[in-house]
């Protein structure tokens, strides 16, 4: 792994500054070491996006000492001694503006952003605990789910915003490809990309991945950032994943896909792609 | 949701005490409230298994104030100032016996156990952050993965042990069934069941799930525990999921399934089931 080796003279076609097209991007980054590949890619993305005229904020969860564990302290206005029903407690705290300040700040950043990038290493096929704790706590009742939230899978609180999942992983590409033993990366990311980001209404792009992350040499890092640069240039123009919106036409009241709606031969997670 | 309402006079056929068949079971439980459905099911399982003559230990992660976030403090013997390479640092700490005491204790409990039950609410299609942090930290380099660990997917450190994932979720069953919008539960659990538990060599059973967990009335709780009782009775006799072992015959050196090995029509995660 090398440090950020981008040459500031280089610029990809899509990243030419265009004040008219300036947008706001939130990068949520999760690695314990500020010299990690994750941190380098976060810095690289911020530089690229700023040079393209965008405004960038970074939620560096480790640097923020983000509280990962959702517990009773998240709902300080809750009557002491009540059994903790997470959905009810978070819906009530959201409605009364009594979620903790760290959670409210992240919800504001999500609303502020036109695009959100999640940058993390894939640990056990999923996000690190600190980022899972960001999802568990920030995507609260009322904001993200429950009867008082906007309808999921299409019209959620974050509708109109874009999402890009950017992961590094120690495994080689073939082991996370269609026939790979760890499972295809898009399927591993389905709960995050579809079940959380699209659930809140975001337009989710194909994930960006850097494989063999433990053994990346300078040439490998340059190749990775070149690939990332192209994806960042398309952040607001790429076609999002064609997830199926939750409508009566598509899904039953029990939230199962109606018979015959799927593309021929698709099963499992694939049913929910148009 | 009701509290544990098991009647001690009831006993399912499979749970008759049999000292000759006494085994050791570790339950890892993750919910912030000791009066939660999760906690009730953990208590129910412990009672059932003890009445059947088994020895039970419980890792109640919230009660233990489990440290969820993997960081530099996990490797106290690491040279200060070194960049944190998680794999290298955890492999070294494992090899030198310098992992933190909490992590070493959980690794010992896993080795002690003949079966492990993970009991948790499904949050955003996955384990709560505190349980993700248990996986991230306890399944360290050397113990779980890396060149010095036992070979994955078949012969790992926990080979010969059984694993049962027991989840509660607020969604209704159809939304997590084959055509459900949240994705089929077995696919959501694949990274955990296959990518972590089977990765370490465990024999993984079909998951046990309690749907509609937010609205469970006493009758619903009785039905849930009746179903759970049957599964617990089969903990050591049920046929495990037929995950494919990592052998040269089945997989390439790049860990992709060889052409033609799959059952006809299977794709994605399904390729890795015999």
Automatic annotation (TrEMBL), chains A, B:
Its EC number is 1.-.-.-. It holds the Pfam family Flavodoxin_2. InterPro entries: Flavodoxin_fold (IPR003680), Flavoprotein-like_sf (IPR029039), NAD(P)H_dehydrogenase_qn (IPR051545). Residues 1-21 are annotated as: Disordered. It is an enzyme of class 1 (oxidoreductase). It comes from the Bacteria. Residues 24-231 form the Flavodoxin-like fold domain. The keyword Oxidoreductase applies. The keyword Oxidoreductase applies. Keywords: Oxidoreductase. SUPFAM superfamilies: Flavoproteins (SSF52218). GO terms for molecular function: oxidoreductase activity. Belongs to the NAD(P)H dehydrogenase (quinone) family. This is NAD(P)H-dependent oxidoreductase.
